[in-house]
Amino acid sequence: MLARSRSAGLLTLLALLVGSILIGLAIGPAEIAPSQVWEAIRPGGAASPERDIVLVVRLPRVIAAALAGGALAVSGVLFQALLRNPLAEPYLLGVSSGAALGAVVVLSLGFAVGPAVVGLAALGGALLAIATVFRVAYSTGRLDTRVLILAGVVVASFFGAGVMLVLTLSEGRTTRSALLWTMGSFGHASWGMIAALAAYALPAAVAAFALSRHLNALALGEESAAHLGTEVERIKWVSYLIASLLAAAAVSVGGVIGFVGLVVPHAVRLLWGVDHRFLVPMSFLAGGTLLALADALARTVARPLEVPVGVVTALLGVPFFIVLLRRGYARSSG
Amino acid sequence: MSFQVRNASFHYPRADHPAVRGISLDIPSGCHAAIVGPNGAGKTTLARLLLGLIRPERGSATFAGRPATAWPRREIARRIGVVAQEAPPSLPISVREYVEMGRNPYVRAWAPLRSEDRRHVMSALRRADLEPLEERSVTELSGGEVQRAKLARAFAQAPETLVLDEPTAHLDIAHEMAIFRLVREFVDAGGSAVTITHSLHLASRFADLLFLLDDGVLAASGAPPEVLRPEILSRVFGWPLEVVALGHPEIAGLHIVPLDSHGGREGEPGAEAAKGGSP
Hints:
The complex is a heterodimer.
Chain A: H1 6-26, H2 34-41, H3 49-83, H4 95-108, H5 115-137, H6 145-169, H7 172-181, H8 191-210, H9 212-218, H10 222-227, H11 232-254, H12 260-272, H13 276-300, H14 309-333
Helix pairs in contact in A: 1-3, 1-13, 2-3, 3-8, 3-11, 3-12, 3-13, 4-5, 4-6, 4-7, 4-11, 5-6, 5-11, 8-11, 8-13, 9-13, 12-13, 12-14, 13-14
Chain B: E1 3-10, E2 20-27, E3 32-36, H1 43-50, E4 58-63, E5 66-67, H2 73-79, E6 80-83, H3 95-100, H4 115-127, H5 143-156, E7 161-165, H6 173-188, E8 192-196, H7 200-206, E9 209-214, E10 217-222, H8 224-227, H9 230-237, E11 241-245, E12 254-258, H10 271-277
Parallel strand pairs in B: 3-8, 3-9, 6-7, 7-8
Antiparallel strand pairs in B: 1-2, 1-4, 4-5, 9-10, 11-12
Helix pairs in contact in B: 4-5
């Protein structure tokens, strides 16, 4: 049952997020009963192998997945509002290709680098792509959203070609790990990476929420927003920056994970409407839920192999979204 | 004085001609001014200069003594409500939520509306006669209802001045009258308004002051009977026009009647239509 009112919706989504985190802690290659999960996360619980698995192995990746999912969903909300384009998603503007290039270059150099270094390289690549796109779109003294999309798409192609070039020239073993990285995984999430992600994602999500009414006004068009008191240029570049940083932070921890930023905001809009004061926090919770669940599935569906989490989000998210779309359109036309 | 324009010119990038050239005008507070003129005469550009959306390349445009572009948008939005030529709303929100956006300049971007804001929204809905449609989605409104919703949103801003860009384009007579009446009532209650319109008749009837633009320059200005003179209008619109007083004791409006024969000036706009129109 979906709650009809928006505040009830918020509570429902919060409960779903907590539930999905608990599920993520309970399932995996080793089966752990819900009572043991409780025993493990309860302060002062007795030490046991299960407690180690839950707290040391599973908790970091579940939290990382939930944070990255929330970040990607809010990033999608911002890009869709900024570009007034329902197809906009965090990766449209080259963030993912930039991150992938950074990661792949470091991986193919062949040094035994830790995941944190790969993450940093990914963040660097993403920021480079963001800066390039922004520089091009801002050249006329204002942020032209049409130029922004075009610049984003060509920069994404350019960096994508770079990834292919590096992969072609590198050895087979590196190719595989790089390829896996481009499909997303939280297997190497560490508390240090989570702290960095949270330090980025939480303030950025709060900042996105603080722009709510401006984002609502932008949906009417840039001049109309100006008539309603929005400093359009400032809001545009601030939201572009927030959205890009959210996506870059998520990519640097979990690799390239598609569909969350596209599907989650649309699903929330279809169910609870377009007001960003609710859309932003609801998308954060729903994105976190989706990615925490997807990560749990990624670990279990093909045990002992792990499926890339990006594959799960697409396989899970797209059919769900198609059902919602059909129901949403049936309701609005009927 | 609410708006003051001095020798202002503006040229859109990549355009062949400047959109407005050396315009000077004063729009005093407490009056309803109408900006009229042919298509492409620079009316909307002039409105954008007044609203500070563009900066004059030469000259100046001030609102309440301060350059229009120097106003923080939030502050100017508390003083000027705008009914712009914007695409019809495609958002699935209710009329009330749409009008609530008029309170944006008064509330924090994340905060809920206060009871004072709700009072303004309710009174704006009532004023524009939209109370019965309050819960209707704005995507389902007719053209006339959309314009009334935009006007209600502007009213909700509690402005002292309204700027309306062709508020009655594509509307039928009853809806045109409704919009102009609402604007007139707003001015009579102590507000100011600037309306861009193609309806010279309604401008003559509801406005105190007319500004006639022609090809980016101010061709005439003053009270309606001073501006709506056949020789001026015929020249500016490129078509022979007659101006007829209504002869109604209570309605002061002037009728602009296009004559049938164009006077045979080949190649001028309307020459072909004039020939085709008379068998």
